[in-house]
């Protein structure tokens, strides 16, 4: 089954480049940049990949991202991910990056976007992986900071295709970012937002009504609101669901409790994605495989999920 799932042509619509930093590369970059890490070796870092919730994961993710300093580092990170895409027949990807994670510790925006952009261009040419980058704002920081980041990004407008919203969800509703999303829309950028991962269905409504998003990232808590589910079906609004992430972050206790297949059968436009593959135990194929092994996903359902991912691309 792994080989069959691996061969399916797929698009990945929800992954954070910083979340694909494998422990081996993290240690290699720390050494290259003369950074002392709080973990003595790779195994002890891996042992820390055990989270009670989203915040515990994010603390580790932001700490790990500190080894990324030069254009070459961002290139190497992105290139490693694109090689995985090629291996897993992910023919199209729309990854996130979080500029504020880097600019707030003094890494110039230009260094980040040039390193990532060069790798994406090489990925298209050398690996045949199509891509469109999504600039994501950190919601635990004020809207003014997101606005400054957007203005900083505008001179590089050809390097990204959309804006997004991520980081700590509870207590940071989408409505706090209405102005910066309006500004991005006025500049011609479509939007996506994380909503309904740990946060309530109201956050999904806000992302739709106020941020006017083209996709919802996660969105699994929509199932608590029947009117919202009907709206998602009627509008065929895509949800970028991340099964391994949701179980590792305790959104669902077990993979067998996950609601993605139920949503699929109800007619919701759901897709399968890896979120932070290095931190959650797998890339796209591993997410499909987990659904097959623990939630009973059939080949026919896998095919529909893969077809949905191609259909829900922002960049056609
Ligand atoms: N940043 C990286 N991964 C994330 C996730 N799963 N939710 C919110 N922000 C994130
Ligand atoms: Zn995410």
From TrEMBL:
Zn(2+) binds at residues 14, 16, 194, 275. Its EC number is 3.5.4.2. Its cofactor is Zn(2+). It catalyses: adenine + H2O + H(+) = hypoxanthine + NH4(+). Substrate binds at residue 276. GO terms for biological process: adenine catabolic process; hypoxanthine salvage; nucleotide metabolic process. Keywords: Hydrolase, Metal-binding, Nucleotide metabolism, Zinc. The record marks 218 as: Important for catalytic activity. Binds 1 zinc ion per subunit. The active site is at 197 (proton donor). GO terms for molecular function: adenine deaminase activity; zinc ion binding. InterPro entries: A_deaminase_dom, ADE, Ado/ade_deaminase, Metal_Hydrolase. GO terms for cellular component: cytosol. Residues 9-312 form the Adenosine deaminase domain. Gene3D superfamilies: Metal-dependent hydrolases. It comes from the Bacteria. Belongs to the metallo-dependent hydrolases superfamily. Adenosine and AMP deaminases family. Adenine deaminase type 2 subfamily. Catalyzes the hydrolytic deamination of adenine to hypoxanthine. Plays an important role in the purine salvage pathway and in nitrogen catabolism. This is Adenine deaminase. It comes from Bordetella genomosp. 5. The lineage of its organism: Bacteria, Pseudomonadati, Pseudomonadota, Betaproteobacteria, Burkholderiales.
